[in-house]
């Protein structure tokens, strides 16, 4: 670094800063400390973008590798000559601390309204080249009510906007898009998700956060919105078109305000930022809460919770609209930049602060598992099933997408790879190419066990070359339209039993997946125990998973999953007698279940040698 650069950088870094600090999961936090992200450390430095004259809120949309679009409120943005605007726009280039921005004109530029009497952008999102923006403080014609929000879209990067003919008049007073990658890459599905504090005004606090969704090609149509309405018995989200049936995804008795949710793709976690109250009445406080969850609806855990996050010289500095832009998340997910603004301490500008995360020890990522991926080209159905000693394994190992194929990541599993692998498969890459690309720059490539299959039945496996010493046996076998794989197993009979059961079972693809899972379990399964199991099946024409069943924690997970499956009335099920009531129970290792007929047979029924088309992979132990 040359001397001039050092001098310029010292001017950008505001010192003395608000106090930095490590993770604080206070006793009054609404959720328990995260077991996955064990530490959050704030940089002591606040970085303010040079050239910013004034403004706040700063929603930001990631358009391309080098460009983000932001909006500023009640200020001049990045121009000395610009008038004060209630809503204005700017282009942001680069990454902190070496970033910059410049204003641009838009037909949505709004003269200074001041606080709640002028519209403000609450959030922005880029999806396939289209910008979406929610504004708050919207006053419908002929009304004096500013507690409404309205949506607009732009096809020319914000120069002009098209507005919806509807608005939210209840609950969604300060909408925030759940943020994914550039141009909405790596999104969890084809929906756009919108969260908000559960009140009408952006200037109050609500104990609850609510969630809505609409397909990304229908987000401008109000009649296409569904609202989160709770979870079913399997932990699957329920959605209702009736806003009155909404349920909270998050609750803090101390309140939430101007929230933001960002998907940290490398870590496979959703990160929520929100202000909260600290006692007494105040529009803004120095408080901040950071939380994480595996899904936008939870379950949430606390990363950081402090009533005095922003402090200078022992005095609170009021801050608000905190968000983690996905562009400023490091490739390993462990460094993020928080964007925010404030009313005190010179913070009424474009401010960012670096947060460094630490995750639980790597051993937590070791998923001893046996699983199967399979497709049925004739029906267009695909799916995967899994069992393990690892908790909730059905939600982090198997992935399937209608018309694309199925994928499993296990033994040092990496959940974000699920959607990434299926994206590459959907673009026409061969299964072998997908695995090669995933592993190319992976420091843990020798620890991974992966399986992938496309709708043509082309399958590829990757076994760990350097598995943990605790693993008794690992390996894989593949046949016509399926592949089985496992690690930390009692022996190779587990994989062969799964393959034989899949081939011999008469029924639907879901039937055959369940039969294979039971067969692997009966053959001994994971030598450490039977804690969790799951099955996911996808079908063309059905959003998300057509069928998904989970047992997250049990003394005999495959048995419990089989009971759930047998009791289920679902069109994914076929003629297999073993998947129907009355379920006769797990027969144990001495007497295996004959999966094709549903009758108990001797031990040879599933432990017989595999057919020649089963290929046992060489790296087995």
Describe this structure in words.
The protein is mainly β. It folds into two domains: 357 residues, Tachylectin-2, Chain A (5 Propeller); 246 residues, Glutamine Phosphoribosylpyrophosphate, subunit 1, domain 1 (4-Layer Sandwich). 11% of the residues lie in helices and 36% in strands. It contains seven helices and 38 strands. The strands form eight sheets. Strands 13, 14, 15, 16, 17, 18, 19, 20 and 21 form a nine-stranded mixed sheet that branches. Strands 1, 2, 3, 24, 25 and 26 form a six-stranded antiparallel sheet that branches. A six-stranded antiparallel sheet has the order 33-34-27-28-35-36, with helices on one face. β37 and β38 form a beta hairpin.
């Amino acid at each position: 670094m040359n001397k001039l650069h050092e001098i310029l950088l010292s001017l950008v870094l505001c010192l003395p800063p608000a106090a930095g600090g490590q993770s604080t999961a206070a006793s009054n936090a609404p959720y328990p400390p995260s077991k996955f992200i064990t530490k959050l450390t704030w940089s002591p430095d606040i970085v303010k973008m040079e050239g910013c004259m004034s403004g706040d809120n700063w929603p930001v949309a990631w358009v391309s590798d080098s460009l983000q679009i932001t909006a500023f409120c009640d200020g001049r943005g990045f121009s000395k000559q610009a008038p004060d605007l209630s809503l204005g726009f700017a282009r942001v280039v680069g990454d902190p601390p070496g970033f910059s921005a410049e204003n641009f004109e838009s037909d949505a530029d709004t003269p200074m309204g001041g606080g709640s009497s002028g519209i403000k952008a609450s959030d922005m999102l880029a999806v396939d080249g289209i910008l979406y923006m929610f504004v708050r403080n919207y006053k419908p014609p002929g009304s004096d009510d500013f507690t409404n929000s309205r949506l607009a879209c732009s096809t020319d990067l914000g120069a002009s906007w098209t507005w919806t003919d509807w608005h939210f008049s209840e609950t969604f007073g300060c909408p925030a898009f759940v943020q994914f990658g550039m141009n909405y890459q790596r999104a969890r599905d084809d929906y756009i998700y919108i969260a908000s504090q559960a009140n009408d005004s952006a200037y109050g606090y609500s104990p609850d956060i609510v969630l809505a969704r609409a397909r990304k090609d229908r987000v401008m149509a109000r009649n296409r919105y569904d609202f989160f309405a709770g979870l079913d018995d399997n932990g699957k989200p329920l959605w209702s078109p009736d806003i009155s049936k909404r349920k909270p995804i998050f609750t803090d008795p101390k309140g939430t305000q101007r929230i933001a949710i960002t998907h940290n793709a490398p870590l496979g976690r959703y990160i929520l930022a929100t202000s909260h109250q600290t006692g007494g009445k105040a529009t803004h406080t120095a408080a901040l809460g950071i939380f994480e969850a595996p899904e936008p609806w939870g379950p949430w855990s606390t990363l950081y919770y402090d009533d005095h996050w922003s402090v200078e010289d022992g005095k609170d500095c009021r801050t608000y609209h905190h968000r983690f832009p996905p562009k400023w998340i490091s490739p390993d997910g462990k460094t993020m930049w928080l964007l925010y603004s404030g009313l005190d301490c010179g913070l009424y500008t474009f401010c960012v602060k670096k947060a460094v995360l630490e995750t639980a020890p790597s051993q937590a990522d070791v998923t001893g598992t046996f699983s199967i991926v399979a497709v049925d080209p004739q029906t267009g159905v695909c799916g995967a099933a899994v069992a393990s000693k690892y908790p909730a394994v059905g939600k982090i190992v198997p992935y399937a997408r209608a018309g694309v194929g199925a994928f499993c990541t296990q033994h040092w599993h990496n959940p974000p790879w699920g959607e990434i692998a299926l994206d590459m498969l959907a673009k026409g890459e061969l299964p072998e190419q997908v695995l090669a690309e995933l592993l190319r720059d992976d420091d843990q490539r020798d620890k991974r066990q992966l399986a992938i299959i496309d709708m043509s039945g082309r399958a590829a496996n990757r076994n760990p070359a350097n598995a943990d010493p605790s693993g008794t046996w690992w390996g894989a076998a593949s046949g016509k339209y399926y592949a089985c794989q496992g690690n930390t197993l009692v022996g190779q009979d587990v994989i062969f039993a799964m393959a034989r059961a899949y081939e011999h079972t008469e029924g639907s693809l879901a039937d055959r997946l369940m039969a294979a899972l039971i067969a692997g379990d009966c053959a001994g399964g994971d030598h450490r125990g039977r804690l969790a199991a799951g099955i996911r099946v996808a079908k063309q024409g059905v959003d998300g998973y057509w069928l998904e069943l989970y047992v997250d924690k049990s003394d005999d997970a495959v048995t419990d999953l089989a009971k759930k499956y047998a009791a289920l009335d679902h069109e994914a099920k076929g003629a297999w007698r073993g998947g129907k009531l009355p379920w006769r129970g797990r027969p144990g290792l001495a007497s295996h279940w004959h999966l094709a007929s549903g009758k108990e047979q001797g031990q040879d029924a599933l432990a017989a040698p595999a057919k020649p088309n089963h290929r046992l992979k060489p790296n087995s132990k």
